[in-house]
Design a protein that fits this description.
By secondary structure, the chain is mainly alpha-helical. The chain contains seven helices and two strands; from the N terminus they run αααββαααα.
């Protein structure tokens, strides 16, 4: 073999090795989604089978989106109950999926209220209750993601009070 051919072959082999190693690095690895309840229902921000049963339509992530205020409040209430029941039964992992889904649902409530023509005072009450529930659920979710034991009891009163406030304000009372 000629000297030029050997040199070219060496460069090609070296380039091939570099490309092979780069292609096998962890930076190019494909992330495999987990099969947690959250991933199965959305990403669990939480409905499970309830998404299909609730009034609304799916979004690109598999979430059911409420079509109106009444449907939105019903979906929030469904997730609220699933989360509460899971913690009361000592099954925090069962709450994780609905916990992720309830955040997106809560965030939709103020817009749905505006679309429904609720008075400004009722909209403000709804927003305050939504913010309080999101903050409480965030505390629980953060603890779970840190591998800590979530303290549902510490936020249950806030959740109960604000779920009732959302129902009341949405009903126009």
């Amino acid at each position: 073999m000629s000297r030029i051919a050997c040199g070219s072959l060496g460069i090609l082999l070296s380039l091939g090795l570099v490309l092979y190693v780069a292609g096998c690095s962890s930076e190019t690895a494909v992330e495999i989604p987990s099969s947690t309840p959250a991933q199965e229902t959305h990403d669990d921000h939480a409905a499970g089978a309830g998404h299909g049963e609730s009034a609304g339509h799916g979004d690109a992530h598999g979430h059911a989106e409420p079509e109106n205020l009444a449907a939105g409040v019903a979906m929030v209430k469904e997730h609220y109950e699933k989360i509460k029941e899971a913690f009361e039964a000592g099954k925090a992992d069962d709450a994780h999926g609905p916990l992720h889904n309830v955040g997106a649902l809560l965030e939709s409530i103020p817009e749905l209220a505006k679309a429904a023509g609720l008075a400004d005072q009722k909209n403000a009450e709804l927003q305050k209750a939504v913010d309080a529930m999101i903050e409480a659920y965030t505390k629980i979710d953060s603890a779970m993601h840190k591998g800590e034991q979530p303290d549902y009891a510490a936020v249950s009163g806030v959740l109960d009070e604000n779920m009732a406030a959302i129902e009341k304000a949405a009903s126009g009372q």
